[in-house]
Specification:
With about 110 residues, the protein is mostly helical. It is built from five helices and two strands, in the order αβααβαα. It has helices at about 10-25, 35-40, 50-55, 80-90, 100-105, and strands spanning about 35, 70. It has a two-stranded parallel sheet. The chain binds a DNA duplex (13 and 13 nucleotides) through helix 2, helix 3 and strand 2.
DNA sequence: TGCTTGACAGAAG
DNA sequence: CCTTCTGCCAAGC
């Protein structure tokens, strides 16, 4: 029972990238969302990892509030400690274990 | 063509 | 809460 889409075509991958950036741009200040949620909103639920790759390697992603994207348990991106500072600046609180307090800041569109 | 790498997710212990 | 493992899938080599 295949419950995920087939492999992306070049065109679909391009559109996926655009959608990811558009969605990231909609995350409100002081809120965060996850790679999985973004992938699902873009129409490819099983591509959470590709969302991360897009943000990491797409030129121009730095101009987006990509620091508001964390993994499903609120962990910040590996190798980017400054992300925490950026989030704290806009009021995002962290738990003792170093994860974002998701119950308080998780955002998802209607 | 086949194996390895990840800004991931979720379950198990 | 943390570690480990499995599933996932485009990219790199």
């Amino acid at each position: 029972m295949k419950d995920y889409p087939d492999k992306m075509t070049r065109e679909q991958a391009r559109r996926f990238g655009d959608d990811v950036l558009n969605i990231v741009g909609q995350i409100p200040r002081g809120r965060v969302t996850t790679y999985g949620i973004i992938a699902a909103l873009a129409g490819w639920p099983s591509h959470a990892r590709m969302v991360g790759r897009t943000l990491r390697y797409t030129p121009g992603a730095e101009a987006m509030p990509c620091h508001r994207v964390v993994n499903s348990v609120g962990r910040t991106a590996p190798g980017w400690a400054f992300q925490r500072t950026l989030l704290e600046r806009e009021g995002v609180t962290f738990r003792p274990n170093g994860h974002v307090d998701m119950s308080r800041h998780l955002w998802q569109p209607q």
